[in-house]
Design brief:
Elements: E1 6-10, E2 30-42, E3 48-58, E4 62-63, E5 66-73, E6 78-85, E7 89-90, E8 96-99, E9 107-109, E10 111-120, E11 127-130, E12 147-155, E13 158-166, E14 171-178, E15 185-191, E16 195-200, E17 209-215, E18 236-240, E19 247-248, E20 265-275, E21 278-287, E22 294-302, E23 310-313, H1 323-326, E24 339-346, E25 350-357, E26 361-368
Antiparallel strand pairs: 1-26, 2-3, 3-10, 4-5, 5-6, 7-8, 8-9, 10-11, 12-13, 13-14, 14-15, 16-17, 17-18, 18-19, 20-21, 21-22, 22-23, 24-25, 25-26
């Protein structure tokens, strides 16, 4: 599906690493591997804020027979390099390397991610300011490998931002809050190990907070033969009395369908937004291909009073990866076939949708509401 307004609005070349939280702390050159997967919200002044994931990577991670990773060290409260013997590592995926020798998969990252607030015009197309002074970086041992993929929801007068915090301790969901969308306060760990893509609904339902979650694992139980569903990662639901303490909902959310490989793996995208027909959820489905797969964006409408009830959904992808968008920065590509939607805002007769393109840049698309029957 193509749209009249669909473009990249931020690329790695727009990031000034002299203002990075890591600037001057490593005796090694770094570069912006990607500036992508932006959480998005509308600020009190009407402008849009993109909370951009900046993946800062070593220019030469492999040297002297070792592969190196960046880590925030809690003792020194600074950044250090860890070296792993190259013969113990699988470096086929440019985003990470696997470490051999354990009874389960163990990985480290080729970059460390931090979050950068970038302010745009009300339509999301003109960059107004990059707020380096308000960047969010690791501040605890459970974030020592960085913060990833912010999602921002406005519930009442408060902004709530979920992030994925990465460390050997846990791969957890962490929560930040703000009264103005620019100055963020760390709240706490809210979901434990390997529960990713937590999206808080933009509004209360029955006086409670709701969220989509995506727990991961290596074991799933089979649906019966002939079931419309396939076993694997799914988008689940959770509720909370205060937005901090969460309980899994007893009914399932959005599940991968059998008979297709395009949603063989799936996860949440933009925080659900309330429409006249119900809650609109944009999410990603992954078709297996080579190492990373093909990421596409899909949509589902859920009942406004019971989001476990699916009212409508689009069978065809809403957004596809677009090689034409990244052609001007082709020399910076390290993966292809990925669009990863992370934000949505009301634009009047259309929605403004924010995505990461190719794990490299930020993409803004204006999607007419009629596409969803609105």
């Amino acid at each position: 599906m193509s749209f009249a307004i669909d473009r990249l609005v931020l690329t790695p070349d727009d990031i000034d690493l002299s203002r990075s939280p890591m600037a001057g702390q490593l005796e090694a050159e770094t570069y912006v591997l990607g500036a992508f997967n932006p959480g998005m919200t509308r600020l009190p002044n009407g402008n849009l804020l993109l909370m951009v994931r900046v993946a800062e990577a070593l220019r030469d991670p492999i040297r002297d027979g070792h592969v190196h990773a960046i880590r925030w060290d809690a003792d020194s409260e600074g950044y250090v390099l860890d070296a792993w013997p190259l013969e113990l590592a699988d470096t086929a995926d440019p985003r990470k390397f696997l470490i051999h020798g354990g009874g389960w998969r163990i990985m480290a990252l080729t970059s460390l991610s931090w979050l950068l607030p970038v302010e745009f015009s009300a339509d999301g197309l003109e960059r107004i300011a990059i707020h380096y002074d308000k960047a969010i970086a690791p501040q605890a041992s459970f974030q020592c490998y960085g913060l990833e993929d912010a999602r921002i929801s406005r519930v009442g007068g408060q902004y709530l931002m979920t992030t994925c915090s990465v460390s050997p301790e846990r791969h957890s969901t962490t929560l930040y809050s703000s009264s103005n969308g620019l100055d963020w306060v760390f709240e706490d760990v809210v979901l434990d190990h390997q529960n990713k893509d937590m999206l808080i609904f933009e509004g209360l339902i029955g006086g409670r907070y709701w969220a989509q979650t995506r727990p991961l694992g290596d074991l799933y139980f089979a649906y019966p033969p002939g079931s419309p569903w396939r076993a694997g990662p799914s988008i689940n639901l959770a509720t909370s009395p205060d937005g901090r303490h969460w309980k899994p909902h007893r009914h399932p959310g959005i599940r991968p369908r059998s008979g297709t490989v395009t949603t063989a793996r799936m996860g949440g995208g933009a925080p659900p937004i309330l429409t006249e027909r119900g809650w609109l959820s944009l999410w990603h489905g992954v078709e297996p291909k080579e190492i990373v797969g093909i990421y596409r964006t899909y949509w589902t409408l859920m009942d406004r009073d019971d989001p476990s009830r699916i009212l409508a959904e689009g069978e065809a992808p809403l957004l596809e990866p677009d090689a034409d968008l990244t052609r001007p920065i082709e020399d910076q590509l390290y993966i292809r076939d990925v669009v990863f939607t992370t934000g949505i805002a009301d634009g009047g007769n259309h929605f403004i949708v924010a995505s990461g393109e190719a794990d490299l840049a930020c993409r803004i698309t204006h999607i007419p509401k009629r596409v969803f029957g609105l």
